């Protein structure tokens, strides 16, 4: 199933939550490299997205060695880690992602279509199955939510 950012918000079954909780620690154990791979592939595929990041928008090459790029990559995977931590607390998960959505829309002014693109690269990098596609559909839909208000 492709990742969507459109409501209705998907719901994870208990089995899907369990599959994520069991597999996530192994993915997260390598969080620095994994998140860097994701962000670098994203910036290669969508070079215009680099303009959104003031701390490295002007950097032309060796992005993978740039400390600001590494820091940004780790912030993304740490946000996903926080969402995984909220799997059994829907209210907290929604609130967390809603706050991030507000920042992305009003403070960072990111094109909301890009959430899906980055998420697809994330899921493919971690070789995530259907449960992860659903998780990232939830993340994308909620990250988009403040744009539609
Ligand atoms: C799964 C998708 C994403 C997640 C989980 C995520 C997560 C985050 C987090 C946790 C922060 C730090 C927020 C803070 O300062 O409190 C952040 C900042 C930011 N994000 Fe995202 N993000 C995602 C996708 C994107 C995409 C696709 C773009 C751009 C095309 C983007 C652009 C930015 C920018 C510009 C900042 C601020 C950078 C700065 O502080 O200089 N994000 N993001």
From TrEMBL:
The molecule here is called Hemoglobin
Residue ranges occupied by any Globin domain in the UniProt entry: 11-148
Q: Which Pfam families does the entry mention?
A: Globin
Determine the domain of life of the protein's source: Eukaryota
Task: State the PROSITE patterns in the record.
Answer: GLOBIN (PS01033)
Q: So what family is this one in?
A: Belongs to the globin family.
Report the CDD domains cross-referenced here: Mb-like
Which stretch is the leader sequence?
A: none
Q: Which gene codes for it?
A: Hb
Q: Keyword set for this entry?
A: Heme, Iron, Metal-binding, Oxygen transport, Transport
Q: How does it assemble?
A: Monomer.
An example molecular function term from Gene Ontology annotations: oxidoreductase activity
In its UniProt entry, the species of origin is given as Myxine glutinosa (Atlantic hagfish)
């Amino acid at each position: 199933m492709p990742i969507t950012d459109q409501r209705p918000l998907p719901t994870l079954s208990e089995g899907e939550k369990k599959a994520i909780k069991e597999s996530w620690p192994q993915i997260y154990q390598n969080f620095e490299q994994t998140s860097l791979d994701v962000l670098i592939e994203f910036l290669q595929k969508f070079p215009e997205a680099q303009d959104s990041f003031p701390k490295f928008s002007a950097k032309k090459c060796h992005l993978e060695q740039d400390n600001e790029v590494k820091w940004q990559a780790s912030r993304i995977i740490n946000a996903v880690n926080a969402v995984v931590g909220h799997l059994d607390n829907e209210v907290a998960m929604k609130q967390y992602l809603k706050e991030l959505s507000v920042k992305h829309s009003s403070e960072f002014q990111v094109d909301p279509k890009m959430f899906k693109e980055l998420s697809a690269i994330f899921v493919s990098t971690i070789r995530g199955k259907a449960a992860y596609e659903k998780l990232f559909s939830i993340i994308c839909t909620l990250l988009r939510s403040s744009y539609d208000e």
